[in-house]
User: Which sequence fits this backbone?
């Protein structure tokens, strides 16, 4: 299976009870990890200087000066970057899901302009200094600083990207529930009950913001996870079908080909 890392696995010098990490790219721990891998946390990585590539869920993104990446839990990534690469890293665990602006959910990377970069650099350096101070006020300052930073990024992203925002905390929770229950076969009605809304309301929200039905969103999430497992693991097609909530591997294969134009075995052979 794909290795999934927690914050303490990556930032080995950090106390396990910490819910976040703030640091420079060049000073952050660089432990030996399996590549590719995924995280169970949110990761903001801003490259202020450097070059290379960052592959996130099969999409290849260029690493370049002043490009900021937002990697979400469960996404698979693998990167390579040039010597002397500099930047900042912010890592947030699931505690921050409730304050993460929904405008950032659909965004994988943002190119920061000079004005925004000049604004963020001293601010982040101050947060890093608070991390090092580690006194009785540091945590409060950092927590409020992270909130401020997230909302500033949200403001900048809505001005600089054409990506359609979700603007619905309910749909963020829906996506999280699907990912957490990826191996189960759960009905739209059950998801709606868990979200404390009707199935009709869930359908209305999905149509409005995704232009898809809840069933399509559930299925697309399962297929994305199946692609990850096919490409990055040695699990059999039958095992992957079960791991993504399909009781019949033949049905899984038909749906997978319908969605991707490839049979599971063909897709697996492309890695």
Assistant:
């Amino acid at each position: 299976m794909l290795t999934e890392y927690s914050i303490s696995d990556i930032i080995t010098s950090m106390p396990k009870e910490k819910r976040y990490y703030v640091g420079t790219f060049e000073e952050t721990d660089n432990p030996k990890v399996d590549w590719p891998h995924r995280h169970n946390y949110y990761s903001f990585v801003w490259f202020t200087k450097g070059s290379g590539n960052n592959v996130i869920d099969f999409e290849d993104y260029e690493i370049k000066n002043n490009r900021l990446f937002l990697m979400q839990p469960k996404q698979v990534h693998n990167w390579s970057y040039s010597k002397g690469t500099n930047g900042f890293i912010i890592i947030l665990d699931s505690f921050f899901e409730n304050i993460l602006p929904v405008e950032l959910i659909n965004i994988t990377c943002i190119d920061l302009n000079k004005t925004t970069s000049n604004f963020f650099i001293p601010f982040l350096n101050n947060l890093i200094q608070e991390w090092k101070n580690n006194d009785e006020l540091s945590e409060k300052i950092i927590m409020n600083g992270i909130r401020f930073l997230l909302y500033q990024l949200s403001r900048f992203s809505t001005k600089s990207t054409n990506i359609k925002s979700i603007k619905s905390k309910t749909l963020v929770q829906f996506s999280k529930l699907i990912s957490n229950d990826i191996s189960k076969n759960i009905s739209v009605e059950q998801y709606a009950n868990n979200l404390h809304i009707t199935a009709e309301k869930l359908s209305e929200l999905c149509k409005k913001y995704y232009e898809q039905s809840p069933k399509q969103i559930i299925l697309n999430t399962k297929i994305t996870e199946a692609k990850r497992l096919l490409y990055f693991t040695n699990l059999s097609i039958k095992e992957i079908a079960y791991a993504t909530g399909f009781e019949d591997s033949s049905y899984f294969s038909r749906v997978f080909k319908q969605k991707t134009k490839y049979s599971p075995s063909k897709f697996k052979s492309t890695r």
